[in-house]
Amino acid sequence: MFASILFFIFSFLILASALLVITSKNPVNSVIFLIFSFFNAAGIFLIAGAEFLALIMLIVYVGAVAVLFLFVVMMLDLNFEELNKKTNFVKTGIITAGILIAEMIVLFVYYPEEQSFIINKNNELNSLTNTEIIGSKIYTEHFYHFQIAGLILLVAMIGAIVLTLRHRDNVRRQDISSQVSRDQEKNVELKDITFEESE
Amino acid sequence: MVDLFESLIIIAPELILAITAMSLLMIGSFYQKKSINLINTLSFLTLLILSFNELIFNNIQIFAFNGFFIEDKLSSFAKFIIFLTSALSIIMSANWLRNYDKTAFEFPILILFSTLGMALMVSANDLVSLYLAIELQSLPLYVLATFNRNDSFSSESGVKYFILGALSSGLLLYGSSLIYGFTGTIFLNEISQLTLSSNQLGITFGLAFLLAGIVFKISAVPFHMWAPDVYQGAATPVTSFFASVPKMAAIIILIRILYVPFDNFISSWSQIIIFVSFSSILLGSVVAIWQKNIKRLIAYSSIAHMGFATLALSTGNKSDIESILVYMIIYIVANIGFFSCLINIQNKTEKNINNISDLAGLSVNNPSLAISIALYMFSFAGIPPLAGFFAKYYVFISLINEGLIFLATFALIASVIGAFYYIRFVKVMFFDEVANTKKITFSRSLGLINSICFIFILGFIFVQSVTPLANMISNATLALN
């Protein structure tokens, strides 16, 4: 009972803050509301007993992604007056959302049966914590997925370098090997200076 | 650990591809300018050898890595086509790349990674590896679309592709999570046994979202919006890659998703597929009439072709997969042939060739180029002795056999409308006033690719009877039974 009340509170807050993300005029406010909805999603994970996911959610989304968003929003030179103008997208969006909701209602009428989610619990794992299970599964059974994920990260790195690295000809770069290999004979010129007596 | 060793042998082609890509990356970053020819050649050869490897060693049905990876005749056949067309794409881009930037050795490596993603995609046997493979396939594509950084169109196309691609991945993940939630398994073959005893509503929801994610990848209506902009903005060799290889992988995974886990849901998904193919054919045929840009027109044409290919899926009969595979092969060959001509023209002329009207007088400047393009256009339109006719013929036959006469009639009318803009190419090349009379020569590699495609399209009946192609396609079709 308590858990379901919490669930409704959290999901209401997620929906409300998600609505505010797309309706608020100031992009910084949008990002703050996005962070708030992440917090509530973490709360829902906690209710479901997935404490590892909840904390990962906070660390990755709030700690990294949202901060990155804030950076981008602050660095962009946005024209707020331009943003506040009403566009046609609202109308199109409402029409599309209306069609989607209508389709969902039709489906619910078409399949009135009530069946719950299948909970596929593996009893031998019950003695372990979530974090231990994820760790042991991901490096053994799901080794294949883990490797593909690694390749995806490699591709993301290559992509970022390809799209942003530019070689300019007139830039002077530090060439460490030539600096180290300098020696006295080539680079230092010794001259005998003759002193002329001043009159 | 014996199991792991066996799995590694089954996955050997993909493993070799991944290791080659990573070692070429090392070579490229140490030798920069000197290495671009070496990297191009090595990646071409690797893909070629791997594609023939798929042709020779193909298994009936083997699972690897605890059942996450499936190797059967369908995936072997798809990999053969994917590796071969990727190899051709690398050759076709070589000249352009040398003119564009000699230090851009990442181009063939990105193609290798994308090909690896497609190979894993057609072999995916669970929802997680399906998602990961789709991501591995599409991330390099976003970068390739933006590769021509100095062109604002190219940057725009990359950003558009990336954002819409991320959206489609989100839809796909949402659908996967619903299916996992209601069946309790991620394995495609286990889902099919559990669908009937689970919540039908939840699975239908999940299926719709999953299909939306995959339909985005084949750029069929209603998820087609990215295609014209991306095709126009990307460099021509990249467009040629986009228009051929990823479509094959996405069509194969669409077939696998529909017939393996959702075999019992034919009545649900055939409505979706009929809508998708119906609207793709209509939009692709009608909107293309107003297009002036060549690559934009090819984008709409590919939307229409994807509509025709998925049309044969709507019957819900497993034996109709054969006509989809035939359609895809003919579509890919004609596309490669057409783009080899277009890339050749763009490489050899200083003026930008972007619009159809720029092709005026091609029949004077280089008759063989003009005749080739005309042949591919006739094939796209479906004129009888050419391969494109047989592609459409098989699809129509499978529709009529299932009693879907209305759909077949509609597709026939739409293909007649589409013939208009294909034949306009011929009119511009042969009958319009000549703007300049500078001769265009064929470069050796592009000429070779073009002549192979030309022979395939012109003599499809003979090719079909001489080569083991028909046999391979029917084997691939039987793999799902």
Q: How would you describe the overall organization of this protein?
A:
- Chain A has about 200 residues and is mainly α.
- In chain A, about 70% of the residues lie in helices and about 0% in strands.
- Chain A has a domain at about 120-165.
- Chain A has helices spanning about 1-25, 25-45, 50-75, 80-85, 90-110, 130-140, 145-165, 175-180, 185.
- The radius of gyration of chain A is 30 Å and the shape is elongated.
- Helix content of chain B is about 75%, strand content about 0%.
- Chain B has helices spanning about 1-10, 10-30, 35-55, 75-100, 105-120, 125-145, 150-185, 190-195, 200-215, 225-235, 235-260, 265-285, 295-310, 320-350, 360-365, 365-380, 385-400, 405-430, 445-460, 460-465, 470-480; strands at about 60-65, 70.
- Chain B has a two-stranded antiparallel ribbon with strand order 1-2.
- The mean pLDDT of chain B is about 90.
- Classes of the chains: A mainly alpha (about 200), B mainly alpha (about 475).
- The interface of A and B includes residues 104, 118, 142 and 155 of A.
